[in-house]
């Protein structure tokens, strides 16, 4: 009796299965760009809703602006600072040393100088210079200080006209022998010194420079004499 034996089938060994490729890595830059685009779109939508009056849109962002109020002319702080730099300081002395004929000049030593009694006249034939039109006036010096003032060093110089022509001093019978005082001025005392300066008939403007003593600055008086 013959028996047919069929061997079991051999296992089939094919090529090893290939593992699936890993999932692609997300691009971080792309995600950031997408997120930014989403945010921009949301902001744009909110602004559009605020402009068009959409009731469903959320409230628009509030922007607070702080303004600096200026006093006087509405200038900006920068303009005010520039104007302050151009403006003179309050402590600066703006006195140029020129005074009107009727003003009184007071020195730091409390010595006061003033002019008064202006009149036009003509010198006599015995004056120096003679028969000359001139302005006659009085120089008053008051010593309100504590020291004696040497008024023998008093000086008075004049000029006339817009061109500042030199004016000769006139010594007439009313102005004394040489026009200057011959005594010293004690504290608390004052002295009146008659003086005359040449002033032609066609001229009115006169300038008179007075220094009460050698150590004092010259005070300048100017104005018309009618």
Automatic annotation (TrEMBL):
Highest taxon of the lineage: Bacteria
Signal peptide span: 1-45
Biased composition regions of type Pro residues, renumbered to the chain: 1-24
Region (Disordered): 1-27, 51-96
Transmembrane segments: none
InterPro entries: Immunoprotect_excell_Ig-like
Keyword Signal recorded: yes
Stretches of the chain forming a coiled coil according to its record: none
Protein name: DUF4352 domain-containing protein
Keywords: Signal
